[in-house]
């Protein structure tokens, strides 16, 4: 039996995946292959390297918005003026990967590792399994209009979430019999919309991610042994707030551990739609 870990995107909420991964590792669950999209590609690289999750937790706990989305007013103005195709440089993410990524090429990972991106011109999802790991992860995380496209083999690539942010289908195509889905959740309990363009763009991306995920779970539930780790709810963290990583890690760890030890472990759960805290 082949087991895949599929990690979705979710920007700052990617910290929740650290708690999920820790609980799964303690329960003896190990992947035979890892597939990541957007921030899930960054976390997935850590899993594929079979690196200590405590170190990944430390990275998240010390991460700040400026590390990922460095402010550059002139670049933002150029973007709005149509003289640049992005608002924020990917230098922060590139530096983060340079400091922590443990393999140079995707094929060098200890556990087979695949990254999902989107070909800008064709609009099709692309599974990257070979070549420079840094460029593949940057491409997968390149939120359209926010971060710059990444050129791979002469073609521009952007965020894998544009077409398939939780790539269950790719896990199936790669021969997985058991698919663990680690979704970040989304900011379902905000009292008001984000005030910044960046915050609104990130929130919108997360909403699209989880709508697609719900559809994919319904589609593939009968084809493979699909195990969707329940995302946290409620989440009232703004999309640009990276200061709550410790809380996300701890909550998701306890939440996942309780689920794994309960009668519903391995069963699918509602991911999108009405939440109990929405009721009046």
Would you mind describing this structure in some detail?
It is a single chain. By secondary structure, the protein is of the alpha/beta class. The chain contains 11 helices and 8 strands. Strands 1, 2, 3, 4, 5, 6, 7 and 8 form an 8-stranded mixed β-sheet that branches. Helix 1 runs antiparallel to helix 3 (53-62) and helix 1 packs parallel to helix 11. It starts with a strand and ends in a 19-residue tail after the last helix.
Question: Main traits of this protein?
Answer:
280 residues; alpha/beta; eight-stranded mixed sheet
Short description:
This protein has 280 residues and is of the alpha/beta class.
Largest sheet features: 8 strands, mixed
Estimate the mean pLDDT confidence. 86
For the record, give the distance between the C-alpha atoms at the N and C termini, rounded to a whole number.
46 Å
What class, by secondary structure content? alpha/beta
- As residue ranges, the low-confidence spans are 73-81
| Percent helix range | 40-55%
The helix-strand sequence is EHEHHHHHEEHEEHHEHEH
Number of strands: 8
Q: Number of helical segments?
A: 11
Strand-residue proportion: 5-15%
Q: Report the C-alpha radius of gyration, rounded.
A: 17 Å
Shape: globular
């Amino acid at each position: 039996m082949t087991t895949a870990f599929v990690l979705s995107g979710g920007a700052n909420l990617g910290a929740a995946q650290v708690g999920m991964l820790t609980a799964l590792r303690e329960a003896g669950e190990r992947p035979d292959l890892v597939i990541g999209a957007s921030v899930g590609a960054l976390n997935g690289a850590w899993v594929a390297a079979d690196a200590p999750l405590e170190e990944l937790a430390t990275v998240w706990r010390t991460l700040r918005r400026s590390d990922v989305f460095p402010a550059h007013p002139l670049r933002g103005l150029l973007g709005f003026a149509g003289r640049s195709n992005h608002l924020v440089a990917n230098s922060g993410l590139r530096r983060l990967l340079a400091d922590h990524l443990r393999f140079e090429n995707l094929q060098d990972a200890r556990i087979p590792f695949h990254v999902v991106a989107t070909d800008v011109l064709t609009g099709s999802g692309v599974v990257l399994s070979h070549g420079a790991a840094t460029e593949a992860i940057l491409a997968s995380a390149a939120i359209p209009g926010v971060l710059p496209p990444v050129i791979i083999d002469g073609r521009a690539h952007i965020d894998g979430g544009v077409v398939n942010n939780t790539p269950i289908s790719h896990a199936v195509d790669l021969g997985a019999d058991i698919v663990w889905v680690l979704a970040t959740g989304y900011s379902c309990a905000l009292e008001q919309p984000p005030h910044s363009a960046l915050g609104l763009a990130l929130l919108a991306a997360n909403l699209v991610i989880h709508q697609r995920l719900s559809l994919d779970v319904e589609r593939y539930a009968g084809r493979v042994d699909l195990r969707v780790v329940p995302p946290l709810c409620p989440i009232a963290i703004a999309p640009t707030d990276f200061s709550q990583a410790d809380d996300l890690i701890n909550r998701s760890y306890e939440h996942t551990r309780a689920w794994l030890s309960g009668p519903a472990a391995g069963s699918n759960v509602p991911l999108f739609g009405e939440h109990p805290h929405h009721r009046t």
